[in-house]
Amino acid sequence: MKNVLVIGSTGQIGSELTRELRKRYGNDSIIAGYIKGAEPKGELKESGPSAEADVTNPEMIANIVKKYNVDTIYNLAALLSVVAEKKPQLAWKIGIDGLWNILEVARENNCAVFTPSSIGSFGPSTPHVQTPQDTVQRPCTIYGVSKVTTELLSDYYFKKYGVDTRSVRFPGLISYVTPPGGGTTDYAVDIYYSAVRGEKFVCPIKKGTLMDMMYMPDGLHAAISLMEADPTRLVHRNGFNIASMSFDPDEIFQAIKRHKPNFEMEYDVDMLKQGIADSWPDSLDDSCARAEWDWKPQYDLESMTVDMLKNLEAKLK
Ligand code: AKB
């Protein structure tokens, strides 16, 4: 990776990934791509170059790639699962038509491409416990349909044209920096904000609903180390299972309560979110990522909770 374009640099993953890449590769070689209305601000804007990068406009992307001699694209443009269910055509336009544009630019300009997939690429007929790397997917949400298509289209561009495409299936990502917007796993971020603000948390997901989750530093490490991995070791390319923790709402509540004994939670289940969560795995088997590019997470529920509470307390003070 010499010059990197991060598309979606102001979103939940993009804002932290751009900073991390700038730390590792130098500020000037990481271009923060954004769409109108979501321009970078503050340190993200000042620390390096930025450019409007709308995935629905292939010429715009091609111009940035040529201007900055980009060799790697992190394509983070997507709607999250709950919003996508409400706007399925827009989800497809951004997630798939947009991806197709990126892959064509990458083919013509010899770029590597990372486009995240998700635990949302699995469906009700997937084995739910320790979901294997290669298994039935058949998701029942448009988010999942677009994520499976992302994996397949990216594999296709690798096999047919040799485009260096790679990706992971992200679990719910938890961070204190930029809040997610419109995901099924967002509750696991919101709960920390309520705890630090001293408010009772109203949980939209039923007790007993297990989902895979990950602390953002591990998610960033996965995205960067996969793109840096030796290609001769990769048996898979797109859609690596990665895992670090799996919990239900009661377990994360108890983990927070150990540090904030007065914290309270009640349930008010959101049927759309619950239906999506029920169709997703309880836990993933990430042995292929461990074997093919030495994936290893650092954080578990307890260490993440300590770090989240410490950083949110400083942020919300
Ligand atoms: C969502 O909940 O939509 C995302 C995801 C797990 O892909 N966080």
Automatic annotation (TrEMBL):
One family name in Pfam for this protein: Epimerase
InterPro entries: Epimerase_deHydtase (IPR001509), NAD(P)-bd_dom_sf (IPR036291), NAD(P)_epim/dehydratase (IPR051225)
GO biological process terms held by the UniProt record: L-threonine catabolic process
Molecular function per GO: L-threonine 3-dehydrogenase activity
Family assignment from sequence similarity: Belongs to the NAD(P)-dependent epimerase/dehydratase family.
Designated name of the protein: Nucleoside-diphosphate-sugar epimerase
Organism this protein belongs to: Prevotella jejuni
